[in-house]
Specification:
Order of helices and strands: HEEHE
Shape: globular
Strand order of the largest sheet: 2-1-3
Radius of gyration: 13 Å
Largest sheet: 3 strands, antiparallel
Number of domains: 1
Distance between the termini: 36 Å
């Protein structure tokens, strides 16, 4: 399982309900092996917190309440 898949699984199983109530639109970095997570207002803030805590592991960042961390461009109807 990839880091992204494992982190999304942790989010769905453990974090979604609580974080979407208390931290909608914030970012969460999840280190899936430890299941530890870091919540903050910016992508960089949480990415750096995860890197500092686990410098030799990969983490994955999710935007709380969204399908993707960032939305690029738009769409036409």
């Amino acid at each position: 399982m990839s880091v992204a898949e494992a982190a999304k699984q942790v989010y769905e199983e453990d974090l979604r309900f609580r974080l979407e109530r208390e931290h909608k639109d914030d970012f969460v970095a999840i280190e899936p092996s430890s299941r530890r997570y870091f919540v903050g207002k910016t992508f960089l803030e949480v990415a750096l917190a995860a890197k500092e805590a686990y410098p030799h592991r990969k983490s994955f960042v999710i935007r709380v309440g969204h399908e993707a961390a960032f939305h690029i461009g738009g769409f036409t109807s």
